[in-house]
Amino acid sequence: MEKISNIKTTEYIGKQVKICGWVQTKRSHGKIIFIDLRDKSSLVQIVFTPSSNIYKLAQKLRPEWVLKIQGVVNKRPKGMENPKLETGKIEIQARNLEVLFQAKTLPFSIDTNGYEISEEKRLKYRYLDLRRPRLKKNLEIRQKVIQFMRNFLIERDFIEIETPLLTKSTPEGSRDFIVPSRLYPGKFYALPQSPQQYKQMLIVAGFEKYFQIARCLRDEDMRGNRQAEHTQLDIEMAFVSREEILELIEKLYIGLVKKIFPEKKITKIPFIRMTHKEAMKKYKSDKPDLRKNKKDPDELAFAFITDFPMFKWHENPSAGASTELSRMSSGQGKWGAEHHPFTMPQTEDIKKIKKEPKNILALQDDFVLNGQEIGGGGIRNTNLDVLTAVFEVCGHKKAEIKKNFKNYFEAFSYGVPPHGGIAPGIDRFLAIVLNEPNIREVIAFPKTGDNRDLMMDVPSEVTNEQLKELHIKIVKKK
Ligand code: ASP
């Protein structure tokens, strides 16, 4: 007899089956005991009658106990069907019952949507929180979205390539997480803020169409809808125009919405386009919410905000988030890259770039949905003199640039094609389409708003031996 999932039982009427799962609910009608057994596919009703020799054990069953059941699939008597349940037309008459685990009572209920429970509690017991159908569904949809992206790009000759997590500090505008090296005392790796430099190296290597479902790690002060780790669909292409990049993304998202979210209505196809200047003038925002009806939960206003400024003035860079900025600043205001310094400015006139950074636009576009930025990208700077000028505007000395970005400059000198890319964020997109208030609802194991993982209890201390091996001493704040 094969072991099948609950949902399959509907195909097995009159047959013997074996199924496994968790007790969702238990109730009695007269002497008959019913349980709803939950597995990954659905709930199914199990019936225990007093005449069976497992009846005594069935009486002891409690919610969330883990069971293995053998029984016969029967049609439910007329009038007893449950139209709300996919398996509502059948039930299983249990013949054999094995209790695989006697679970304790859960710290909270899992048959509600969970919003009413404190987040501390939900995240501490995330493995229980995830038993909730809403979160199960969110993660299933997340997987479908990622699968769609993969298929879409692979069909178009893209290659998926993983890049390292242990890498070097890069100037993407946030603070890096750093990892001490045991073998090289006093030296550190950094976790990638994004695979930006690696993907450009792959282009130098001749992979003309790259993508990756990439994890990006940024040690930011927690603000609103952010996480220390987020996932993005990282894309890079050689010999590409910005128009081609935007068209690819447009096609991908139109196809994705049609297939996975057919109930949603896209405000405008082709997607709305607007320059950064227009957006700031008209909406005072670089991520305007362009929905026609903001109360409609099924409207998706995708937009490309184009031609971002190349540079941004930071009043107080040392207090800001960026290592790149704080490394170089003397505490006064200074210029930094609006996105990242690898973007191509819209002029290659070096004098102009250095003289009037304020007026320099970049070949840089943002992807916006319902008032939130869900991605950014553009054409990369392959003119090494212009790239040097950009770093200089950002406050780097020439010698420092040569040292910090040696590999990048060297790689390009061996022949780099024009290239560009984009990286739409997956968490934010999902939170918007699923009408979730926070990206934590679409991530399996998110951190709290203040960057802790309550389930694993991190950040946490390490042993003195570990610190010793790393040549690290903790200095307690007085
Ligand atoms: N690396 C950029 C980011 O993570 C995206 C890109 O320019 O492709 O924001």
Description:
The protein has 2 domains: 6-101, OB fold (Dihydrolipoamide Acetyltransferase, E2P), CATH 2.40.50; 127-448, 2-Layer Sandwich (BirA Bifunctional Protein, domain 2). The strands form 5 sheets. The chain has an 8-stranded mixed β-sheet with strand order 6-9-10-19-18-17-14-12, sandwiched between helices. It has a 5-stranded mixed barrel with strand order 1-2-3-5-4. The protein is of the alpha+beta class and 478 residues long. Helices cover 26% and strands 24% of the residues. The protein is elongated, with a radius of gyration of 28 Å. It is built from 14 helices and 19 strands. Strand 17 (364-369) and strand 18 (372-379) form a beta hairpin. Mean pLDDT is 93; it is low at 319-330. The longest helix is centred in the first third of the chain and has 23 residues, at 133-155. Residues 194, 196, 216, 376-377, 421-423 line the site of aspartic acid.
Features:
OB fold (Dihydrolipoamide Acetyltransferase, E2P), BirA Bifunctional Protein, domain 2, 2 domains, 14 helices, 19 strands
Q: What is the CATH superfamily label of the largest domain?
A: Bira Bifunctional Protein, Domain 2
**CATH architectural category of the largest domain:** 2-Layer Sandwich
The geometry reads as elongated
How many domains? 2
Q: pLDDT average, as an integer? A: 93
Q: What is the alpha-carbon Rg in Å? A: 28 Å
Poorly predicted runs are: 319-330
Beta-strand residue fraction = 15-25%
The first-to-last residue Cα distance is 68 Å
Q: Order of strands in the sheet with the most strands?
A: 6-9-10-19-18-17-14-12
The strand count comes to: 19
Quaternary state reads: single chain
CATH topology of the largest domain, anyone? BirA Bifunctional Protein, domain 2
Give the distinct bound molecules: aspartic acid
For the biggest sheet, the summary is: 8 strands, mixed
Number of separate helices: 14
> Percent of residues in helical segments?
25-40%
